[in-house]
Amino acid sequence: MFDTHELGRRPGAMKKVSRTVPAPKDLGIEVIGVREGADIPIELRLESVMEGVLVTGTARAPLSGECVRCLEPIERELDAEFQELYSYPDADTRTGGHLKPADAGDDAEEEDTLHLEGDLFDLEPVLRDAVVLELPLQPVCQEDCLGLCSECGARLTDDPDHHHEVTDIRWAALQQFQKSGADQGADENQEK
Prior knowledge:
Order of helices and strands: EEEEEEEHHEEHH
Shape: rod-shaped
Number of helices: 4
Number of strands: 9
Radius of gyration: 31 Å
Low-confidence stretches: 93-106
């Protein structure tokens, strides 16, 4: 929770806040994310406006996961930017009706509105959205990662010339015939 008490309700008042917060649980997707409890440095700018407090900020999140091509571990940092308006609980009456009343029929918009709780606001939902939306869906250890060999699981980036002799099953009988012919020819040459 962050405190906006020093801003008061004076439009135009501004305050900068720097803080390091622990990462919440499940901040990521299956292959990459932020470990629970990892330190996330946050820089915030809090601005008092007529309807509430406008929060603009950046978060630097330490990511860990694995490459989707070769399964090698990945460690890097992600910078996520966000901006959100936290409305005063009584904003629709304070502004002389400038905001739409809750009974105007747009319940979905009302549900998406974040409200201050007294002078405090919870940044976790905004931070979660900002970080998760910036995550790569297919993280790779390097852009030109070749992945793993489908036959033996060897890492192809370590050995780009890696390959296996593959016999097409439709030609297997012909290769057997060819081998038996070569073996028979070798036997005849030895007899001479």
